[in-house]
Amino acid sequence: MTFKHLKLLLMLILGLTLPCISTHAMEPKLATALTGEYNNFLPTGKITRFAGETLYYDISFLWFENAASAKVSFYEEHGKYFSVLEASTKGFVGFFTAYRKHYYKTEFEVIDKGRRLRPKTFLRQVTSASNTETTRHKFDYSHRLHTWKKYANEEKVDRGQDAIPTESAFHDILTSFYNIRNSVYEKMVKGKKFIIKTIPEKGHGEIFVHILSEHDQEKFRLEEERKKGDEMLLNIIVPKEIFKTETGELMVWSSKHYVPIETTVKDYILLGDLHARFTHREAH
Hints:
This protein has 5 helices and 14 strands. The protein is mainly beta. Keywords: Signal.
């Protein structure tokens, strides 16, 4: 087998579509996990307080540790608010996946007296070598209409639209991420369950969130030999197409300050479970 053929084979085996929002990790028997706690934490309040924050994560899968990195940031510029999630492979894995990059950006409206976000636009862009796939979403609340266009490099290849339900909105992963952290959908207490309406993907348009009870969480903690702390364990089911997984299931350990510190994306196609681990937080 030539080097060229070997590279193509490895690209087939290792090629991945990194998850968004949600990239945060679960690895058993880790020595010193970061707490995900910070000064001036509030469980709810003005959601624009997240402006200037960036959370960083390392991603591992199969036998490759720290094979990719991700960061999610909240920005304010000239009175407008938006969030960006960036993820990319690196090192050996990066070489054999053409340094695949994912870029997501949501422009927000701040509503509900400053407490809640809803998306104005949502951009998803995946780049591998010289190829870029882009999907652009727009949300028109006056006409209750969601429109989207898909591009291969600069060529438009598909488009569509959906009616936005009355008194509701389609919350993408970045909108959902910050709304959850501001207790918008439910109070963040153990045992709670709630549903988030998201952008429809092949007939699936809901995110199911279950914050496990203390009893159920304890079973997972013991299995993973985790040190007992003030964490919460969330079981999240998203449309399978978002992360290209078999089940759409995520298990997320969150700090008591609502920062995801360890996450497993279950049954990623070809790769099994993906693990993302919080490394640090910056605030400006």
